[in-house]
Amino acid sequence: MKLKTQWAHFPYRKRLDQFEFSFQPSIDEKKIRELASLAFLERKENVILLGPPGVGKTHLAIALGVEAIVSGFSVYFVTLQDLLAQLIKAREENRLKERMALLTKPKLLILDEIGYLGLDAFGATCLFQLVSDRYEHGSMILTSNKSYGDWGTIFQDNVIATAILDRLLHHSTTINIKGESYRLKEKRKAGVLPKPGTS
Ligand code: ADP
Ligand code: MG
What we know:
The chain has 199 residues and is of the alpha/beta class. The chain is built from nine helices and five strands. It has helices at 29-36, 39-42, 57-70, 80-92, 96-102, 121-134, 151-155, 158-170, 182-189, and strands at 46-50, 75-79, 108-114, 139-144, 172-176.
């Protein structure tokens, strides 16, 4: 596909039809298909994909992002870690305001991997501002390995975590994925790892 997907900075390119729903029964396929209709983008709602590593959060986020691009929406994909590096650099170069303003532009902002990295006060404040600026203006898709109850520890501040979640979740869909890592499936098949439930 040649459709300007490089602008979105996807780490890899995956479509929805490459996703095996049968492998991840905790995901309601109907809900994902409904999201792929992009009504959530028109309504400026958010999508949050939660679950342990390897269950398909990034795959689904990219697949929805590709649908959005195909339909002519602007999309920007970034991991929280890369975003923070960009913002720290922008602060050093005295152009933090411009950088933050740029992040409100895409119709869809995909923020991947919230939770692997703890945030300091600067990171937490920037994320709060980003979520506030985009609130009811443009959709976000976020992925996290941590449940909402643990977001306080990511931001090392329960007050700011609550404020971020309050805005994020007001108009949103949460997809809670509970299941096995797809990456480990291949290894199990090859006999490198034991089957779950055996030791
Ligand atoms: P994470 O939840 O950690 O973001 P990813 O979405 O990156 O996991 O998935 C890891 C790898 O496994 C990717 O290459 C992805 O395309 C693949 N994958 C995960 N779940 C599925 C699935 N149900 N069907 C097909 N491929 C999958
Ligand atoms: Mg991921």
